[in-house]
Amino acid sequence: MGNEVAVEVRLSACARVRRDGLDAVKKITHGISWLRKMASHARAVLAYARYLGVDPETEPNLLPVAHEALTGPLPPGWERHLDEVHLMPFFYSDEGGFTTWQHPQLGLYLRKLDELRGAAAQKAQAAQAALHQQALHAQQLQLQRQEEEARQR
Q1: Percentage helix, strand, coil, to 5, in the chain?
Q2: How many other CB atoms sit within 10 Å of the CB of residue 54?
Q3: DSSP string over 81-121
């Protein structure tokens, strides 16, 4: 009778370990699936950014615009689909019954990119002007010191 209880306890423990192991495998599988989706989404955002004329290496600040174009709401009557081979979205119009590679709001996103680039350029120009002013001021101070030293001789 004691052996039967011990065997039952072991079987119960094995069942618990098996169940916990299966739960862990499910969680890992779900995590891997999520990572694959995120990697695929990241590749799609980079590909669409390039399509919009954004260089991800030199303009990473503009990637949110590509992300928004891929995930943001569409006008009524439009659906977004993803071409898995090219990692590019295409769009279907219920009203017209046609598909197109061009985002129905492409102009909006191109304007956003232009605005962000313009703002960045203005910021860069302001920073360059400030550096130029600092250099001029440093040069003026240097000249004043040299004049003072010359007077003291």
Answers
A1: 70, 10, 20
A2: 22
A3: EEETTTTEEEEEETTTTEEESS-TTHHHHHHHHHHHHHHHH
φ, ψ (nearest 5 deg) of residue 59: -130, 50
pTM (2 d.p.):
0.59
Select from 83, 78, 81 the least CA-distant residue to 97: 78
Among 17, 70, 22, 18, which residue's Cα sits nearest to residue 42?
70
- Name the nearest CA neighbour of 48 among 75, 81, 71, 70: 70
What's the pLDDT band for 129 if we cut at 50, 70, 90? confident
Q: What are the strands of the beta sheet with 98-100, ordered from one edge?
A: 78-83, 88-93, 98-100
Please tell me the distance from the alpha carbon of residue 32 to that of residue 73, in angstroms, as a whole number: 28
CB atoms within 10 A of CB 74: 15
What is the per-residue pLDDT for 79?
94
Q: How far apart are CA 137 and CA 134, in angstroms?
A: 5
**Has residue 6 got a pLDDT over 70?**
no
In angstroms, the Cα distances linking 30 to 21, 43, 62 are 14, 20, 31
Residue 2: pLDDT over 80? no
